[in-house]
Design a protein that fits this description.
single chain, 535 residues, alpha+beta, Serine Threonine Protein Phosphatase 5, Tetratricopeptide repeat, three-stranded antiparallel β-sheet, 17 helices, 11 strands, disordered N terminus, disordered C terminus
Length: 535
């Protein structure tokens, strides 16, 4: 049995109800409510910024929406139940009305905007102390709050809106409200801005905040936006925005002169899934740049109706590649069967850590610690940017660093990439509809095999983190979900369902919903058109 305090799913979250995240893996279960109503000192502001990190996990929404999971009932002669009704709705790309608890759109919306509210209160308090003549040096706290605000909106816009296309095309896509003021009323007047406007504000916060970060302010830097984590965030953001020169600039700050020294050590041998799970989030590992503690039961999906199985499994963790056969050697002894031999596999990077509030009743809080930024993912961001900058040899060198660190048996070269990623390799080579989304988003025939390789490696690297869904969206990759034995749903490149629907409670409170195709009769469909509120 699980138990959680309910989260307000409206945009406005009272400051008094925001929960603090702890600053280390060892004490993350010992959270205390934030009762600092008077932010009169540097120390109190620093403590408030801790709660600007959202304790919600978007993996369930993103992974079940992507091609990383399949419906086991469609490929196995069994009938399996989903972990909860929410999973059925998300997998079918339907509005999620079944849950307002952990991992639901309601939970994510409330937790992320709650974290953003903390960041805004901290920023306002910093400015107020300055106006009063305080001499306290708080630039580091300001930088951290700005980056937290930027990242909260970055995740929300990529979950609840269409992918960024370009500054002009994205003016026509409805985004999310960008909150920049402290919450002082129970329900304010919040307007959804265009995706283009949201991205512009994220960029402003990143570029201002990243210059202010001070690692010496943190007891455990890897539970904060330290300098390398901030640069990794900038790397990812500018990759999505396709400003490739900036991607390389920021990635260089993370990776240094020899990326091989920074990547995950896959040579370790473990005795249990718990050992893997704890080591994966080890703050001492140079590959881990920032972790976020979340309330989540995502790990309980494995072994249920929806699993990492079939083509999802063969096209990633348990499939061949350009320099290996069978599965990547790094996964030897680290992939586990999901409940039964035929239900697929899981890798315990998202292992659940349970905090009992009552052991007799068996209730408490399920936690998953997310490795939000890693050097491995940053390396692949840079490789992708280098392809588009036509610095092919450098891109291949980055891909070989990743290939070697994951213990692949052969060396990756440009020739190997071009010979493997061909049209017949449908598990790894997808049609990209980038140019349909933006006339400026061109993948040339010469670049295509290299991008296929990057996306393949990114799919493996970010497995169960949710970022495969973002890659599918930004490239307009079309996917199918087989639901049971008879229903096949196809998600086309410009499908309205690529923007997950807002929580019903938020819509009922007056927020404009995402547009959807409304079916009135079997032969009659029409678009519910909603003009974005562009600012």
């Amino acid at each position: 049995m699980k138990y959680y305090n309910k989260t307000n799913i409206l945009l406005v979250v009272s400051l008094m109800t925001i929960a603090m995240l702890s600053t280390s893996c060892d004490d993350f279960l010992s959270t205390q409510p934030d009762n600092r109503t008077l932010l009169t000192t540097k120390e109190k502001i620093a403590q408030l910024v801790v709660s600007a990190y959202p304790d919600a996990n978007f993996s369930t929404l993103a992974e079940l929406s992507s091609d990383n999971f399949v419906d086991n009932n469609s490929i196995l002669p069994v009938y399996l139940s989903s972990f909860e009704r929410l999973d059925d709705q998300i997998y079918a790309w339907q509005p999620a009305t079944a849950s307002t608890e952990e991992d639901s759109p309601s939970f994510l919306w409330g937790k992320y905007y709650g974290a953003i509210a903390s960041a805004n209160h901290a920023l306002a308090a910093i400015e107020a102390l300055k106006a009063e003549g305080s001499t306290a040096e708080m630039s580091g706290q300001k930088g951290e709050a700005l980056l937290c605000r930027a990242y909260g909106h970055f995740v929300l816009v990529n979950i609840f809106a269409q992918a960024y296309k370009d500054d002009v095309a994205s003016l026509n896509d409805i985004g999310i409200p960008y909150a920049t003021e402290p919450e002082t009323v129970v329900q304010g007047d919040y307007k959804r801005e265009s995706v283009s406007a949201v991205y512009a504000k994220i960029q402003k916060d990143i570029e201002e905040g990243i210059l202010l970060i001070k690692d010496q302010n943190y007891t455990v830097p890897k539970y904060h936006f330290n300098s390398k984590a901030a640069a990794a965030f900038a790397t990812r953001f500018f990759l999505y925005k396709r400003d490739y020169a900036k991607v390389v600039t920021y990635a260089d700050q993370v990776l240094g002169s020899d990326p091989s020294l920074m990547l995950r050590n896959w040579n370790k041998v473990y005795g249990s899934t718990a050992e893997i799970g704890y080591d994966y989030i080890n703050t001492e590992s140079p590959c881990n740049l920032m972790m976020i503690t979340t309330l989540s039961t995502f790990n309980r999906n494995f072994g249920t109706r929806y699993g990492h199985n079939g083509d999802a499994m063969k096209g990633s963790t348990y499939g061949s590649g350009p320099t290996w056969s069978g599965s990547l050697p790094c996964f030897d002894g680290k992939l586990y069967i999901s409940e039964s031999q035929d239900y697929g596999v899981f890798f315990p990077k998202c292992d659940e850590m349970f905090e009992y509030t009552d052991k007799v009743a068996g209730i408490g809080y399920a936690h998953i610690v997310r490795t939000e930024f890693t050097t491995d993912e940053t390396l692949l961001c840079r490789a992708e940017a280098l392809v588009y900058l036509n610095r092919t040899a450098e891109a291949v060198a980055d891909l070989q660093h990743w290939n070697k660190s994951h213990l692949a048996t052969n060396t990756l070269t440009e020739a190997v990439i071009r010979s493997f990623y061909t049209a017949d390799k449908t598990l790894f080579v997808k049609k990209l509809n980038a140019e349909k989304m933006s006339a400026g988003f061109i993948v040339t025939p010469a670049q295509k095999p290299l991008i296929d390789c990057v996306l393949h490696f990114r799919r493996i690297e970010t497995m169960f983190d949710g970022f495969r869904w973002f890659d599918i969206k930004r490239y307009g990759i079309e996917i199918e979900h087989q639901i049971g034995r008879t229903v096949t749903e196809t998600l086309v490149y410009n499908d309205l369902r690529r923007a997950i629907q807002l929580p019903q409670e938020v819509i009922s409170a007056g927020m404009v919903p995402n547009p959807r195709i409304i079916t009135t009769t079997p032969r009659e469909k029409y678009f519910l058109f909603i003009k974005p509120a562009v600012k």
